[in-house]
Write a structure and sequence with these properties.
Number of strands: 0
CATH topology: MetI-like fold
Largest sheet: none
Order of helices and strands: HHHHHHHHHHHHHHH
CATH superfamily: MetI-like
Number of domains: 1
Number of helices: 15
Shape: globular
Length: 290
């Protein structure tokens, strides 16, 4: 009892949350790490005696698998092309809804945030109609200017850009709200002083808005990058990784190996390779920020 009295009272307040984190985060991660060194599959699930420890074989097989490199290339394409565009759209929307001349700011923020809270299945149904090669609105609009119809989701060259466009529309509202909060923390006196000095709107944006938004901008960039590396739902719902694996992502590859073919050990190895890639990219961004 005397020992318990000397424990910081704050520990008791955070203990329930820490217990849940350990049970539902750290333990599953540790179990997945252990599985990545085994050949755990549906047979081992039925009979644990068939489980074998194979060391780094899953990782070596993964790095020699052409499908892994296709999925990695597609994921990097999605991150490099979609991430900056998503952040740029979010920043533009934040500047518009936060402008002093904009009326009904709360209404516009709500409307622009609605796609974030809309279920992906509903969004996918609507966007599949928009992308329909014969009856879709996009091809109808292109036809008005004389452009031939495009098979957005059936052409390997257009499938990934189509998913990027949908993902930007679906997710930019979250970053927009964060950037709006960052914009509102910038002191108004800085802009007033800049106006008195004759600074144009572009110079105010370049020398005041961007530098003052740097911490928020870094947070938004890192969160967007991490989310885009975990690309799964969009190709799973829209294309199932096709056509010709042009939209196969690392997340979708893990799902297929783990829950379609029951190669849990192989899928776990892919998950930790993805974790290492995301960690390296995040550390690189933090060093660039410094």
């Amino acid at each position: 009892m005397n020992t318990l009295r000397h424990i910081n009272p704050g520990i008791w307040f955070v203990a329930p949350a820490l217990t849940l984190i350990v049970l539902f985060f750290f333990l599953p991660v540790a179990a997945a790490l252990v599985l990545s060194f085994s050949d755990f599959d549906i047979y081992a699930l039925g009979d644990p005696d068939t489980l074998r420890w194979i060391g780094l074989d899953n990782y070596t097989h993964l790095l020699a698998d052409p499908l892994f490199w296709v999925a990695l290339k597609n994921t990097l394409y999605f991150v490099i092309a979609g991430g900056p565009l998503s952040v740029a759209v979010s920043l533009g929307a934040a500047l518009l809804v936060n402008h002093r001349l904009t009326r009904f700011k709360g209404l516009f923020r709500t409307l622009l945030f609605l796609p974030v809270v809309t279920t992906l299945v509903a969004v996918a149904v609507v966007w599949r109609y928009l992308y329909h090669p014969r009856y879709g609105f996009l091809n109808y609009a292109l036809g008005l200017i004389g452009v031939a119809p495009i098979d957005w989701l059936g052409d390997p060259d257009w499938a990934m850009p189509s998913l990027i466009l949908m993902a930007i529309w679906k997710n930019f509202g979250f970053n927009m709200i964060i950037l709006v909060a960052g914009l509102q923390n910038i002191p108004a006196r800085l802009y007033e002083a800049a106006v008195l000095d004759g600074a144009s709107n572009w110079r105010q944006f370049r020398y005041i808005t961007l530098p003052m938004l740097a911490p928020t901008f870094l947070f938004v960039t890192v969160i967007t990058m991490i989310g885009y590396f975990q690309l799964f739902a969009e190709p799973y719902v829209m294309t199932q990784g096709g056509p010709a694996n042009s939209t196969l992502s690392l997340g979708l590859l893990m799902f297929q190996e783990g829950f379609r073919w029951w190669n849990m050990g192989y899928a776990s190895a892919a998950a930790f390779v993805l974790f290492a890639i995301v960690l390296a990219a995040t550390m690189a961004q933090l060093k660039l920020r410094r």
